[in-house]
Design a protein that fits this description.
single chain; Rossmann fold; 7-stranded parallel beta sheet; NAD(P)-bd_dom_sf; Sc_DH/Rdtase_CS; oxidoreductase activity
């Protein structure tokens, strides 16, 4: 959705325009200040039904939605959290598509999925490349039909290399962890709008609430994922698709995935006391969140995200 337009086609062209400041805004009158108080009171009154709905659903939670027969795309689904999530989706009747650079384990995952009685396919793709993701979307639409669920689990931990701050490594981390989320959403969200049904999952990190330190690039990308998913939720709401198109933001702690990665993370100051869930626990929590239309979850889910935010 475009909220403004200009004659420039690129941001660079816009930057070259002479700066045109807005005239001074006249100070707010006493009446304007009074109106703001009235608007706030009106907001509180209008929010009462929302609070009632939340309380009722907390006491009598609605039945989980069925995703049997839906088609799910899992980026980074060859290993780790993505792999486990793909299997749990299949156990709930989802047809699953794996998109990953790791073709060997991707094909192994497809065999596991087929053994669960669902349709499955694997495509090699670099989610950081916009053109490749667009081609992937068209290919999947042609081969497998529309995608109902997108789980964005593809990601990299930049501090596993000798120097994560080289321009090449920094760009790679941002392009995979952040831009990949932009590209998959651009490729699959329009179809979800057209069909009036869909679910997008973004894997952020506990680091997007309480970073451990020594992970500046990774933490930055996960804060970006958190912000992207917040805004996507609001965009869907304002577009009038609330309840039909759903977003879920996932904030895992350290997960016992790749050995060298997990060991390196647990060596960081303050991390030794953290619980270390398995990918299977994370995958189960993610699929449960999808079925229950949860907007945010922590993994493990011993706290709610609003409680965790108190530590920020």
């Amino acid at each position: 959705m475009t909220i403004c337009s200009s004659n420039e086609s690129t941001l660079y062209e816009f930057q070259l325009k002479p700066y045109n400041p807005l005239p001074p805004v006249p100070p707010k009158s006493l009446w304007h200040r009074f109106k703001r108080i009235l608007y706030f009171i009106q907001f509180l009154i209008k929010s009462i039904p929302v609070w009632i709905k939340l309380i009722v659903e907390w006491i009598w939670p609605p039945a989980p939605k069925s995703i049997s027969g839906w088609t799910a795309l899992v980026t980074g689904g060859s290993n780790g959290i993505g792999h486990a999530t793909a299997l749990y989706l299949a156990r709930n009747g989802c047809n699953v598509i794996i998109a990953d650079l790791d073709v060997v384990n991707g094909k192994k995952t497809v065999k596991e999925l087929l053994n669960l009685g669902v349709k499955a396919a694997m495509y090699k793709v670099d989610v950081s490349v916009y053109e490749d993701v667009v081609k992937l979307g068209r290919k999947i639409e042609s081969d497998c039909g529309p995608v109902d669920i997108v789980v964005n689990s593809a990601g990299i931990l930049p501090f596993m290399v000798d120097d994560e701050y080289t321009p090449e490594n920094l760009r790679r981390a941002v392009n995979v962890n952040v831009m990949g989320l932009f590209w998959t959403t651009a490729a699959f969200l329009p179809g979800m709008y057209a069909r009036g049904r869909g679910h997008i999952v973004g894997l952020s990190s506990r680091a997007a609430y309480t970073p451990l330190g020594y992970m500046r690039i990774y933490n930055t990308t996960k804060y970006a994922v958190r912000g992207f998913m917040e805004d996507l939720h609001d965009e869907i709401y304002h577009a009038g698709y609330e309840g039909r198109l759903v977003t879920t933001s996932v904030f895992p702690e350290i997960i016992s995935t790749r050995r060298e990665t997990t060991e390196r993370l647990l060596s960081l100051p303050g991390s030794s006391e953290l619980t270390v869930p398995t990918p299977e626990e994370a995958g189960k929590d993610i699929v449960n969140a999808i079925r229950n239309n949860k907007r945010k979850i922590l993994v493990p889910d011993f706290l709610q995200t609003w409680q965790f935010a108190l530590f920020e």
